[in-house]
Design goal:
Oligomer: heterodimer
Shape of chain B: globular
Structural class of chain A: mainly beta
Number of strands of chain B: 18
Structural class of chain B: alpha+beta
Strand content of chain B: 15-25%
Strand order of the largest sheet of chain A: 2-4
Mean pLDDT of chain B: 77
Low-confidence stretches of chain B: 169-228, 230-236
Number of helices of chain A: 0
Largest sheet of chain B: 6 strands, mixed
Distance between the termini of chain B: 59 Å
Helix content of chain B: 25-40%
Order of helices and strands of chain B: HHHHHHEEEEHHEEEHHEEEEEHHEEEEEE
Amino acid sequence: STVVLVFEAPQSFEFKVTAGQKIKMGEALGQI
Amino acid sequence: LVDSWKNTETKWYPIPVALGLSVVGFIQYRRVIQREEERLEHPKKYVATGPWQVHVAAALPLRSLSRLWGSFNSLTIPEPLRPIGYKLYSWIFGCNLDEMKNPNLCDYPNLSAFFYRELKDGARPIANATLVSPSDGKVLHFGIVQGQDIEQIKGVTYKLDALLGNDDKSTSPVENAILGNSRQIVDEEEFANVNGIEYSLDDMMNEGHSVKTESAVGPDGLARSETNDPQDERALVKLADVTPDIANHKVKPGQAMFFCVVYLAPGDYHRFHSPTNWIVQTRRHFAGELFSVSPYFVNLLQNLFVLNERVALLGKWKHGFFSMIPVGATNVGSIKINFDEALKTNQKEDIPLGTYTEVTYKSASKILGGKALRYGDEMGGFYLG
């Protein structure tokens, strides 16, 4: 199963993850 | 009886009988024609293109297998066998049993219950970030949506409208089916599921299904941000005033549309939570296949995320449009949304591929125009089969 997020954000939004990285619920995905 | 049988005169009326047969024949003929037309408009099965693995997967009755898998895993396991069985499963798939809310393995009657286990309070602290992960898993891919294209893997894209659906009524039924846009609009106050059973959304929301909503929304009808806005802690976020173009997914100047895909492996905690403060306004349940969504298949099968059955939750956050789309897979074909009891996924009905049923949550809060969710609120999860 997967969860896909699609969202509008300011262009300054930055993902704080890398592809293939393991992540836990509640950990930072991105920041403005 | 014998006398009646032998001596009763039989009167035949050729013209009415012929007329009746003609009518029955005509009705049957019309029904067959309609059925064939519908089949052409909405393909019920994915036509496989790609390497042999894709053809094999497409030939399998994945939805039936998924339901069988779910039924099998719902069988009660004898109590003495539970600890050893779940420990073996945990060892194979890397589950961390220390963070389970109920650590007594004997209390889980079957693998489905163990799979949908809860975590201890505080096991997943919510980070101080604009956006947090909705679930445990692996980040498969992320980036910016270029025009309408979302990158699945390098060089392979799928369409945003195909993933989320759109309100464009100008496309033909066949195009719509391919794009995943053939829809059954459901009324805001009363809506029907695919079986035609009607539910009252107000009834659902007012009878204990929206307890968490109330805690997320203040008496003034505004969502509260408690922990994730360091500059403005406990400030009220005026989500009611945000008016994104949800229907067409258009962004405002200076903004961009981003995407992120998180894959949940079999051993992962399989509930998903709200990744930010936002309001869900619409739910679109797309019928589809149940291919595996493992990284291996993501690399192999083009358009995987728009072929599989999924639930697109559309709404808004303080920066505009926001959506979250749980996508089903063969082993976890059922998607549950806690605040939407009418939603039934992975059903036996043969619904045409790419069509969807739309429901709005506007009556959950008249002011906010939908169901309000805070950072970390549990939204639902994936069930085995």
